[in-house]
Design brief:
two-stranded antiparallel sheet, four-stranded mixed beta sheet, alpha+beta
Amino acid sequence: MNGKSMLSLVLFAAILVFAEQASACVRASVPGADAIIDPAKRINQKLLTRAILSEVNYERCKAGLAPLTPENALVRIAEGHSKWMAKARNVSHKSTIAGRRSLRARIKSTGIRIRTGAENIGMVHRFRIDRIRFRIRSASSCHFETFSGKRIPPHSYASLARTVVGYWMASHGHRANILNRDVQKMGTAAAFDRSAEYCGAYYITQDFTG
């Protein structure tokens, strides 16, 4: 066997091992995550964090990385930043809140000792209309349908988590944060903007530390 054939065989074996590892990855079950989010009530940020963590750790498993663990202090600063974004109607890493204007300042405010930190942010509509073609049957009653006539429901914790992590994984910078081997902890939170088009939207913040 020549060197080229040997190299091809080694690469093929490595691909098989990676494929077997990825196929063994599963999303952790999150009790309660199938509940529809009621924006009229307080969002369960810890449940949302667990739902998003399930998606994140699934992606990290497929990449051969260690799972992350939830951090309540990060949930708190993520909630504060999400509320600012929802009020300002602005998806931005910088805010006008004194002492929490930047990611560095927000993480420093928790008292957590870290070597590295990162943040993903985003906005997702309350109903599952993002990136699909839909029609409005009744704007006042939030009745949206696909073009095949199927009514589009509002997000649950699980569907919101899968949607936003899917968006982040499709973006190079956000994906790099999720697959950063130097982070170990994560916290996420969402805030609702009821005045957003199509019956409201969630502003979501995801913070990492390592």
